[in-house]
């Protein structure tokens, strides 16, 4: 059996919020390690609003703006090799819009980090389709964000 080594592929096609690929890899590694998840690959794409809205339309037949889209690929625990947990598509501009700030404050990076954590949780079968599931997911997000802060693993420029 091959030894699993996590590869995080990062594509940054947006210009609103500079994001270091290494910080993305660290965040994903810390979250998955904390949750005890073993996988070979995770793909993370940072997109402009227009591109994310187009993808939203293609995948969900809904052209509205969104902050993140998650496409799970291999279920956690599946024996496929390479095991691809999924793809996260994120609009950092959505974080600026949500926070109503154009500057690149720590809050913006924390919010974009939240979007990536949210996407990773969706890859792990967490759902936010009911108020109770949404609450449980938010609690887990907040816990993971605290861990990321403690380990200096939030996204950064």
From TrEMBL:
<dbReference type="GO" id="GO:0006364">
    <property type="term" value="P:rRNA processing"/>
</dbReference>
<keyword id="KW-0862">Zinc</keyword>
<dbReference type="InterPro" id="IPR023091">
    <property type="entry name" value="MetalPrtase_cat_dom_sf_prd"/>
</dbReference>
<keyword id="KW-0963">Cytoplasm</keyword>
<keyword id="KW-0698">rRNA processing</keyword>
<feature type="binding site">
    <location>
        <position position="118"/>
    </location>
    <ligand>
        <name>Zn(2+)</name>
    </ligand>
</feature>
<dbReference type="GO" id="GO:0005737">
    <property type="term" value="C:cytoplasm"/>
</dbReference>
<dbReference type="Pfam" id="PF02130">
    <property type="entry name" value="YbeY"/>
</dbReference>
<feature type="binding site">
    <location>
        <position position="128"/>
    </location>
    <ligand>
        <name>Zn(2+)</name>
    </ligand>
</feature>
<dbReference type="GO" id="GO:0004222">
    <property type="term" value="F:metalloendopeptidase activity"/>
</dbReference>
<keyword id="KW-0479">Metal-binding</keyword>
<dbReference type="InterPro" id="IPR002036">
    <property type="entry name" value="YbeY"/>
</dbReference>
<keyword id="KW-0540">Nuclease</keyword>
<dbReference type="GO" id="GO:0008270">
    <property type="term" value="F:zinc ion binding"/>
</dbReference>
<comment type="similarity">
    <text>Belongs to the endoribonuclease YbeY family.</text>
</comment>
<dbReference type="GO" id="GO:0004521">
    <property type="term" value="F:RNA endonuclease activity"/>
</dbReference>
<keyword id="KW-0378">Hydrolase</keyword>
<protein>
    <recommendedName>
        <fullName>Endoribonuclease YbeY</fullName>
        <ecNumber>3.1.-.-</ecNumber>
    </recommendedName>
</protein>
<keyword id="KW-0690">Ribosome biogenesis</keyword>
<keyword id="KW-0255">Endonuclease</keyword>
<feature type="binding site">
    <location>
        <position position="122"/>
    </location>
    <ligand>
        <name>Zn(2+)</name>
    </ligand>
</feature>
<comment type="function">
    <text>Single strand-specific metallo-endoribonuclease involved in late-stage 70S ribosome quality control and in maturation of the 3' terminus of the 16S rRNA.</text>
</comment>
């Amino acid at each position: 059996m091959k030894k699993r080594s996590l590869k995080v592929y990062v594509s940054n096609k947006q210009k609103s919020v500079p994001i270091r690929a290494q910080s993305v890899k660290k965040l994903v590694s810390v979250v998955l390690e904390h949750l005890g998840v073993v996988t070979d690959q995770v793909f993370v794409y940072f997109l402009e609003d227009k591109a994310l809205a187009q993808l939203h339309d293609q995948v969900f037949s809904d052209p509205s703006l969104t902050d993140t889209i998650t496409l799970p690929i291999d279920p956690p625990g599946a024996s496929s090799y390479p095991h691809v947990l999924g793809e996260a598509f994120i609009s950092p501009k959505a974080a600026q819009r949500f926070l109503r700030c154009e500057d690149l404050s720590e809050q913006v990076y924390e919010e974009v980090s939240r979007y990536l954590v949210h996407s990773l949780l969706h890859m792990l079968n967490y759902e936010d389709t009911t108020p109770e599931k949404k609450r449980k997911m938010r609690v887990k997000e907040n816990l993971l964000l605290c861990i990321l802060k403690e380990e200096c693993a939030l996204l950064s420029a």
